[in-house]
Amino acid sequence: MACRLGRIIIGLVCCAGLSLPVAAQAPCDALIEQNHAQLEAMQRYAESFQQSLEELSAALAQADRRNAEQTALIERLEAELRKLRARDPTEHDRQRREFFVALRRELPLSTLYEVSPDRLIIASDPVFIFGKGELGAEGQERLSPLMQTFRSLVEQLPKSFPWRIRVEGHSDSRPLRTNPKFDNNWELSVARSVSMLQFMVEQGFPEDRLSAVGLADTHLRDPGDSKAAHRRNRRIEVHLIYEPFPAAE
Questions:
Q1: Distance between CA atoms of residues 140 and 112, nearest Å
Q2: H or E element: which one contains 57?
Q3: What pTM, to 2 d.p., does this model score?
C-alpha cells in the first residue's frame, strides 16, 4: 500500500514537472506572434511609404519637365517677339526719337554741337586741325564730355536690335586747292569721319557697332556761299541707324 502510494505521488510530481515548461511557453509564443505581427505591419508601412516616395519623385520629375518645357516655350516666344520688334520700322523710329530726346535732355546747350530729332551734329572747325583729317588735342578734350554722355545712352540700347552708329563726314562746297594731303573734299570728309570713329572707339564705344562714311558736299545744310554757310556745312553727323536682319533660312 505504501509503495503504491509512493508511486502515485512520484507520478503526480513527474506530471507536474512535465507540464511547467508548456505553461511557461504559451506567453512567449504569444509575444513572438505579436512581435511578428508588428514587424509585418511596419514592413507594410515601409513598403507603402516607399511607394509614396516613388510616386512623389515621379510627380516632381514630371513637374520639372513641364516647368522646363514652359520655360523653353516662354524664352522662345520672347526671342520671337524681340525679333519681330527688331524688324519693325516703327519700333526703330520710336527708339531713335527717344534716344535723341534723351541725349538732348542730358546735354547742356553748346555751340560745339546740335542735337536734332534724328542725329547729333558736331561742328568740325572747333575740333579738327585746320585743313587736316585729325582731331586736335583741344578738340578731343572738348568732345570727351559729349561722348561720355552719348556712350551712356548707347549702352542702354537693346543688343538684340540691329542698330549701328554711323559717323558721317561733311565738307563745304569749296574745292580744295592747296591741300598737300587731300586732293578733294571726298578724301577730307572720309578722313575726318574715320578719325571721329577711332576717337569714339577710344572712348569705349563698341567697335563692331560703328561705321564711317565721307559725303563731301553732297548733303549741304546751308546752300549759301557765305562764311557762315560754309562753316555750318563743315561738320560731323552721328546717326543711329538700323540694318535689316539676314533673311531667315
A1: 12
A2: helix 2-87
A3: 0.65
Question: Of 143, 115, 128, which is closest to residue 235 (Cα–Cα)?
Answer: 128
| Sign of the alpha-carbon torsion through 142, 219, 187, 227 | negative
Compute the distance between CA of residue 129 and CA of residue 178 in angstroms, rounded to an integer.
16
CA distance 113 to 146: 9
Indicate the domain borders of the chain: 87-242
Q: Which of 14, 141, 149, 161 is nearest to 86 (CA)?
A: 161
Written as one letter, the residue type at 97 is R
Are the C-beta atoms of residues 124 and 174 closer than 8 Å to each other?
A: no
| Fold topology of 87-242 | 60s Ribosomal Protein L30; Chain: A; (3.30.1330)
Per-residue pLDDT of the chain in tens (249 residues, 90 and over written 9)? 544 544 444 444 444 444 445 555 677 777 888 888 888 888 888 888 888 888 888 888 888 888 888 877 777 756 655 565 556 678 899 999 999 999 999 999 999 999 999 999 999 999 999 889 999 999 999 999 999 999 999 999 998 889 999 999 999 999 988 888 899 999 999 999 999 999 999 999 999 999 999 999 999 999 999 999 999 999 999 999 998 754 444
